[in-house]
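Pipeline run #58 for the internal structure catalog. This entry was flagged by the ingest filter as a single-chain record with no existing model, so it goes straight to prediction. Upstream metadata was stripped on purpose; only the residue string is passed forward. Reviewer on rotation: M.T. Logging verbosity set to normal.
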Amino acid sequence: MHMRMRTRTQSPKAARLPINRHADAGSRGGMSVPSFCKRLKVVLFAVSILFASAAQADGLLSWPQVKRKIEDHWKTTAPRERVLSVERKGKPQYSASQRVTDSAYIGSSWYSAWITSYETIQGSFARQVALVTVERPNKSKARFEVAALYRGEGKSWRFDQVAIGPVTELGAPGDPAQPAEEAALAIFREAWAGKRSDMEVKSMKLLAPPKLAGTPKRRVLRYRMEVSVLGTAKASKKYRGQSLTCRPEDYSSVLIWDTKRGAWRADESMIQIINKDRVCDIN
């Protein structure tokens, strides 16, 4: 049985424990020792129940069961996509509550707004994250990060839904292979050195897997990056000699497949337009 509760935040004053004015000197300013022990026993008992139920559930939510549910879900919701693999990512996660978000749009000729409310559902919940690789009818491939969600019913788990998360495009037959992370960073570093004489690159890192974009004739990879630089003598006075951390706009760092050279190259125009005042912070 699952109970819904509206989430409320108590004021510090309301959250204080009641004062036992008949407490002895050893429990000055708080509860009496017997009362405190009773409360402590209740808390420890509740915590013990929570951990015991999680330990018990850990043996009930099996990976083969989760994998089968994800495959069945894909056959129902995306019948034209062929599931190539389902890989487990991490261990099952358990909780005794779940936060639910509900959004509604209210509009009229003179007023409109989105109203969002939150509810906390009490009960037993489990989730298993997985990576699902699929092939589409056009032979392109993609990898989805999903979460299989379950609700506890007695001593068993009932499948609830599959939540879809980030997707990584893997391309189609004939597409060029994506460069390894170090290779991609080397291409970007060379382009930054050639186009940004006002900044000397000290280090750079990728913040997420690239997104495949473009057309079959012009393949593009878009990245999220963080770049640590040092303002050179050609930088403005504000940044000269300063250590900066730059985070270009999400997925604005671009590699383009050069069909003539048969290699990836950086889109240098995207590097040239980077505005330090907008995307760089002085360390």
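catalog note: The radius of gyration is 28 Å.
catalog note: The longest helix spans residues 33-58.
status: ready for reviewer M.T.
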